[in-house]
Amino acid sequence: MGIKEDMAAALPEMFEVLGEPATFSPSGGTPAACHILIDFNVDLQPDGFQSTAWQRSTVIEAVLSDIGSEPNRGDVFRYNGMDYTVQKVTFNDGLSVKVAVTP
Q: What Pfam families would the database entry show (predicted)?
């Protein structure tokens, strides 16, 4: 086994221990229970031709094997009684994905 296979096997358990329980609901798909890492007030750097130097956002990280596929804009994570709508993917290494969300 290589490092990527080892991480793929370990990540779900790590997120279960360190993360928070949530539900991922893709648009037009079946909701999936998952565990997430959530960070509030993260300074995101601009991409493309945005005119702002930075913006604050909430970022959620989830294990791809738990949620099924990379989230799309408009998909929703439900955590602690609140819905967090995906705005954009900020990171995807094939094992976990980070998304900027709005409440």
A: Phage_attach (PF05354)
Map out the domains of the chain as residue ranges: 3-102
pLDDT for residue 93: 95
Q: Residue 103: name the closest of 73, 72, 70, 79 by CA.
A: 79
C-alpha 54, offset from chain centre:
20
What is the band of 44 on the pLDDT scale with cuts at 50, 70, 90? Answer: confident
CATH topology classification for 3-102? Thrombin, subunit H (2.40.10)
For the chain, state the CA radius of gyration: 14
What single string gives the DSSP state of each residue in 27-63? TTS--EEEEEEEEEEEEEPP-TT-SSS-EEEEEEEEE
User: And the tokens for 1?
Assistant: 């086994």
Q: What pTM was estimated for this model as a whole?
A: 0.88
Count CB neighbours of 15 within 10 A. 20
